[in-house]
């Protein structure tokens, strides 16, 4: 069925398009009789104004834009949910762009935000985005970084201390007597992953006789984690890591399954620590020790900071909020220390 437009209403009411627009949006500019005639025609035809067009004419889109690295990861899904909590309370909606570990997609999302005139953008960057973010800001669209920081100090951010997180995870393994460690992470170019590895290396450097082997994957899926677990299990026991830090829980859970499927015990032979503490970590076949990130709270806080900037609240253009890690110990490391 053809959508009824403003031209159809004008023809039914026998008035100009501009008169219809005034009667529906600025009724004080036309007579009461014309307003009633136009509204009657609109009702007869079932005309529904395009809300987006009305908002844009008023200088508002009613939207916040948000990019995330991979929404298949529950950490990012929870972060989006937190942003939606804050946006909904302010009468706004969130337009979400999932880059799926793809820089080109990420940039496409930023360009879309510019085209639809979002009121502000929440960006969890996968790759370098400086020129694209500068374009948004040049259009008067405020930006807040999420799960990242701006080295220039120009953009406010809500982030997580990943160096401390990587260090905490590794120190836990070392405290259980593990010395041959591995760090399994996706994409060394991702800042958060690099910082987690840096923290792990700091912990290892403080323990004589300990070593850590970086192992890189292309993506952070449980299937890839399982494949790497099987590969580690195929090594001779003396060459196999006895402790693993994974850059997220998906990898870690898959890794545990891969090890167990090849007869390697977790945690007796290999202890595993994940990252993010997604909901499934606690109910996995071997409950997973993990570094907890308050994803939903981070998303909500970042959206509240962005809304303050949109509203022009003094000082809201500044600020860097950094959350600290929490270690949640479960069966994938617990109870089998090597003193």
UniProtKB/TrEMBL annotation:
Domain of life (superkingdom): Bacteria
Pfam families: LacI, Peripla_BP_3
Coiled-coil parts of chain: none
SUPFAM superfamilies linked to this entry: lambda repressor-like DNA-binding domains, Periplasmic binding protein-like I
Listed CDD domains: HTH_LacI
GO molecular function: DNA-binding transcription factor activity; transcription cis-regulatory region binding
InterPro entries: HTH_LacI, LacI/GalR-like_sensor, Lambda_DNA-bd_dom_sf, Peripla_BP_I
Isomerase as UniProt keyword: no
Keyword tags: DNA-binding, Transcription, Transcription regulation
Keyword presence, Ubl conjugation: no
Domain named HTH lacI-type: residues: 4-58
Protein name per Swiss-Prot or TrEMBL: LacI family DNA-binding transcriptional regulator
Native species: Microbacterium allomyrinae
